[in-house]
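In response to a reviewer's request, we include the raw inputs and outputs for one of the modeled complexes. The three entities were modeled together in a single run.
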Amino acid sequence: MNYHKALKSAAAVLAIAAPLGILAVGNGVAQAQDAVNLRMTIWSANEAHLKLFNEIAAGFKKDHPNVTVTYESLPFDTYTTALTTQIAGGNAPDMAWIFETAAYDFVNSGALYPLTDTLKAAQGYNLDELSATAAERWSKDGTLYAYPFSTSPFAMFVNNDVIKAAGAKTPAELIAAGQWDWDHAIETASAVGQTGKGGLIVRDFNYQIWQNLASIWNGWGASPWSADGKTCTMTEKPMVDALTFIHDAIFKKKAIPGPGENVDFFAGNAAMTITQISRASLLPKDKPFAWDLVPLPRGPAGEYALIGQAGIGVMQAGKNAETAAEFVAYMTNPENSAKLSQFFPSARKSLLNAEVLKKTNPLLSQDQIDKVVISGIATGKVIPGHTGFAQIQQTVRSGLDAVWRPDADIPGTLQKICGQIGPFLKR
Amino acid sequence: MKAELSPRMKVFLYGLMCVLLVPFVFPTWWMVTSSVKPISDIFAFPPQLVPQSYDWTTYQKVFELQPFVQQYWNSAYIAALVTLGTMVVSSMAGYAFARIRFPFANTIFMIVLLGLLIPSEVTIVPLFQMFLKAGMVNTHWPLILVPIFGAPSVFATFVMRQFFVTLPGELEEAARVDGLGRFKIFRKIALPLARPALASVAIFTFLHSWNLFLEPIVFLSSADKFTLPQALTQYTDAYGGPMWNIQLAAATLTALPVLIVFIIAQKQFVEGLAHTGLKG
Amino acid sequence: MAVAQENVAPEGRASSPFWTVARRDSLAGFLFIAPQLIGIIVFVLIPLGLVFWYSLHEWNVLANTFTYTGAQNYRMLIEDTNLLEVLGATAIFSAGLVVFNLSLALLLAVLLNQKLAGITIFRTLFFSPVVVSLVAWTIVWGFLLQKNGGINGMLQVFGIEGPNWLREETTAMISVIVVQVFKNVGLNMILFLAALQGVPNELYEAARIDGAPRFKQFRRITLPLISPTILLTSIITIVGSLQVFAQIAVLTQGGPGLSTTVLVYYLYQQAFQFHFFGYGSTLSILLFVIVAVLTFAQWQMRKRIVFYES
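The model returned the following structure tokens for the whole complex.
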């Protein structure tokens, strides 16, 4: 959009027209359609992200000169809350980013406009390319209600300097020796933790966002509720074993910083952290440390991967839902998906190859891309979610507080939590 | 208790006050000093009282990442308008409740006092809907109109009423004999006497508006309309992780000017309060 | 509370038989209070009525359904197993806050009322947190109260191993109270200081001649004379304590368990996080009733407690 040029030509027109007294109001630009303003709520306020989004909006405007798209950054922490407040007030955005945990709420409620038809109709869109597993959470009865534009695997970032200083084995060495499993990983973390630095940090978990622990307990085959979401499975053996393992790592082995301890991996204060690969951008540019990126360790139940997702949905309530759906189709077409994938890994098969990914993730090696990114997206389970997740999350969070103390009764606490969330799961 | 104190007593009192000061001063000190620490030093344990190395670029980033000057202006002009408006509304209402006899005055006063009792969380959803219907969402109007006329101004009205009640009636009598109407009596006689009470109302109101948090979050959505407390929470990386040192630098910039104004004006403030009806 | 004063002179000039002084005054009175009254109606009473209306509905924001359910939300209120714990936390929080706030404010006011050089510097410093942004203040305390944060760092200097402040039920409650008190005690302190300075000096002199010790002077003279201020500050502080929200959200998010989930935070969770706007509105009504009853009770008690009212 060349704003200055437009302004200049407008000024020129004015200069000619004004003396002649022929300046008719509202007759300036021939415009058959009414102007349409679309608003998309997002949780990123990152400049680079916004620049790209605005470029995409400008691209859309070329074919749809009457459509203007604006992005509204809401704070990450309170994003879903702020979004639903807008909806409650009757001020729903036309499009919104949706967290994977909240996906069921939005998809099942009927708040979203069905996208499948619009996406299929878009030229060169090739919706079939989207992997079915990636689309699962965002679909109901075979219809896609939000497009999963970001499918980001969890992986382990490693600070080799810290680990070597503690005299422990690095993950790379363990992988080479075929010993990359949770027992060895915690052994390394524990060795570092004993020196006063942080061992392993599950990023953003912070004893509140417990669903991020799926990055560990999936290795035990544990899950908080059954596949159909109706039954609490936290009392079953895999979950009890996994949480006992995590508990020991925190309180006996000092391998994971305890509750209320602030340690930042990216500031160089910890051995390892589990987070999404896109956080590579947080690695320090000056005073860097020797870092590595490895897949999650093997658990008792074998190898596994975890992914986080984010979707774009069109609000049913908006006046211009159809146009908004067209914009989503444009934003996530193969060409723009490729651009987006530099920040948000795409679940399109054509973009899931080493060549493309190498370009968009310059920090990662070929090997890391193969083992962490590609196989992670292909095999990963999505972070747990459920209808009414906010309430379930909160209930489990306050219940788990009883686990995060040295003398915890883990099976008893899990029993109690299941009793509390049981009725919510059945809703 | 105004007797001369013994030297030993003085030392004891100074010592006691210095100890008590720690939790009041240390957080602010830590906020200011940490704003120039590199991020890894913020988490250092034990905490550094004085930065080991300085990183002044945080202050530059405060202005780069957000339209901070604009946000500063938003907060400042909203707080100024709200303060002025509240002074007008509450001094008039307070005067009427204290000095004018009119039907249902007591009942109306009780209804107005209801405003003191209602947390803003309670009414935020209906207010949001009302302002949406009026086309005022994502404008500053809700942040200006509600404090001036709604619940937050009730405390100011209460303070003003308590003050005007103490005015001697003879002054008004004399003015009446001179032929002054109600409004003139209010403006020429009562209001000038009420300066101390007005001063404390002004300070309370300004601080309330300056620190408002929930309402801006609910009503405003574009960065150039944000107010400062809201802007503080926006210094995050792309994944919502707070950029601590930049947040602290921004927080320092929001706190210091008010602190300086208070230091200059605190004598008037304390003495102003001493002359209001609040003293009992 | 008597609002009007006996100050209307009957012999005021009446320009016409209808516009008597009393009528003119009535009109003036209504005009004077009009902005405030209209504001209260529009921004308080109507929204409050709407909240009550919502509380009779089940409102699913996402599905955009709004169904009349009568008293169902109120039945839910009675059956809510969390509510008792929440109300308990609210009571502990408010009581702790008021007691700590008022006693600290009074102590500081008495200290600042002494004839000491440089007392204005102390006054300024004690007041300074009031002008620091609440969010910034809470974030900073959040840092300091971490297990490996500043408070425990200082305690370590004295060889004490500090508790995990925000993660133990008791210390978490103490922490949110203390953080809130240090932030705002300056306001009450100034109000008390003003009240203390209004106590006539002669009374103390008389007491001193009678040989009354300092503490007795304080109990017998100071406290009764400043009792109206104590009443006022306690009402403001209690009402304020029931509205504390940002501090809880930043420091503990209501945990551990439900130990710091006060009513206003619970209301916020139900309405804004869980999207139960109908039930959230019901909790709003409950909160309003609690505040109103408490204020009324305090107001009634004033006759017994307050020794003197101007």
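As requested, we also summarize the result in words. Residues 159-307+383-426 of chain A form a domain with the D-Maltodextrin-Binding Protein; domain 2 fold (CATH 3.40.190.10). Chain A has 17 helices and eleven strands.
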